[in-house]
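Escalation from tier 1.

The customer reports that the assembly of two entities below gives different structure tokens on two consecutive runs. Tier 1 could not reproduce it. I'm attaching the input and our single run for tier 2 to review.
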Amino acid sequence: MSEHPMIRLVDLHKSYAGTPVLRGVDLEVARGEVVCLIGASGSGKSTLLRCVDHLEVPDAGFVEVDGELIGHHPAGPGRRLRALPERRIRRQRAGIGMVFQSFNLFTNLTALENVVEAPTSVRGLSRAEAAREARELLAQVGLAGREDSYPRQLSGGQQQRVAIARALAMRPKVMLFDEPTSALDPELVAEVLNTIQTLAGRGMTMLVVTHELAFARDVADRVAFVDQGRILELGPPQSVLTDPRHTRTRAFLGRLARPQTPAGSRDDR
Amino acid sequence: MSARDIPLEPAAAVPETMPDTVPEQARPRPRTRAGLAGSAPGTGLAPGVPRPDTPIPAGRAHPWRWAAGALALAIVGAGGYSLAHNRAMQWDVVAEYLLATPVLEGLWLTVWLTLLVTTLGFLAGIGVAAMRLSANPVLRMIGVAYVWFFRSVPVLVQLLFWFNIGYLYPTLSLGIPGGPTLISGSANDLISATTAAGLGLTLHEAAHAGEIIRGGILAVDPGQVEAGTALGLSRSRIFRRVVLPQAMRGIVPATGNLLIGTLKGTSMVSVIAVNDLLYSVQFIYNRTYAIVPLLTVATAWYLIVTSLLSAAQYHVERHFARGARREPSPSPWRRLRTLGHGARTAWRSR
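Tier 1 run:
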């Protein structure tokens, strides 16, 4: 049944004001597979992820999710891809869950309202039905009883778990995580990573940008090292993380092992 | 006074181990056996209640704060007394005209003109803000030019301009271009003084309202829009459900200020003989020469309406503060009680 990969990136290119950020990225993620993207700040990891959700439109190349071309009409005879109408793109995005580094919960809505919002307006569920599902999802991420809290009344870890529940409420085919723990205090990282690991255990296809190498080692099926807008090295975690072939991968892992050096600073755009 | 009423333990009862920096108000008691043991077990005290010998820090006394407050009160009191007892104030005249029909008619015009100008100004302001935030460079430019022009020209000049529009366009007509004319008439008939006043104030208001709305929208974190986009929400849904409610937190206070400014700004229409609150009292004192009492009448009404608007603003702001703070802000009543409590504490720890 899975004759096509769940996520397929083909020769993605993207520049910002003449500065190339992605310089030809090819990647295939199988159904149920977890791929972690690691790499230095500014290497293009986040841009790559945002292209999958069409938050960024690639200058060249294309993205397919579950065999469907994202953001464009299926390729015809010519080279140019025609953009899909906004409504179709919205429907595609609804099937792709995205979790941001800075959570981006709607600050004027409670935890429950955050989770309920998209299912009612995009999936067309009734409010009662959406609220029932939302309570279930919040309980799954360990936040039963916090439904009526506003984001600012929750810790960073709790906010990120609400954000995960909010993305799951759309029943996405794939989940994208953009440095989900980089904005968290160290003691809150584990609760979010555990939530993501549980999802992986349930067979969710995931693409995770992270600096948590231990997480990548334990959860990822494959790890991709992104360097200067390309995937330099891709393989099982034990080979990429413990026995990298490229000197640049080795240098990056060496810097992460000594996080006190400025080069190993963990903030990324 | 009250601090001295509280019976203090004799100084001799203070154990030598107590540091001498412990304030007098802390009233340390001799340590009991359980107190020395350190924690609640065995003391019979609930956790969360300090042990009987635990020092309690008192607030710092602020004698100069009290002195400055008293001096300020004395000055304000003296000023108030002098005003109240000045015969030229003619408080009886003030009382006579406060509810006089011409004054109330003027007040009515002032109020409805303010509401009309604010409503129309904001509707137009939404358009101005939308143009300025548009992706279309032409619309953006027009928006910028509009704001530049109508913020630069004083309202008074604009009012005079609209009042005298008949010199520029003697006749105004509305019709289908190349087709029949639907309405036509002399500019001076169509644009009365009141219309000129509403027009001038509204155009001015729209420029300011547009900037307030734009500022409020720009203050919303772009991540909020991005999260909505990633969920597949439509742009209008994101705007209505997420961006606008958050933008309102910035828009409401600024709008309150603008509304109060507009209320006072309407007094300018008196120069083109629109019968507003100020014009109505001027009309009376030109006849009776009771200038100061009648200006006091106008002042009183401006104060009353502004106070009502401020109270309304306060409640609207509280509504839109939803989710903005960790704790909801206290209602005015609770704040008053806290203030009283604070004053009592300060008085005690003097």
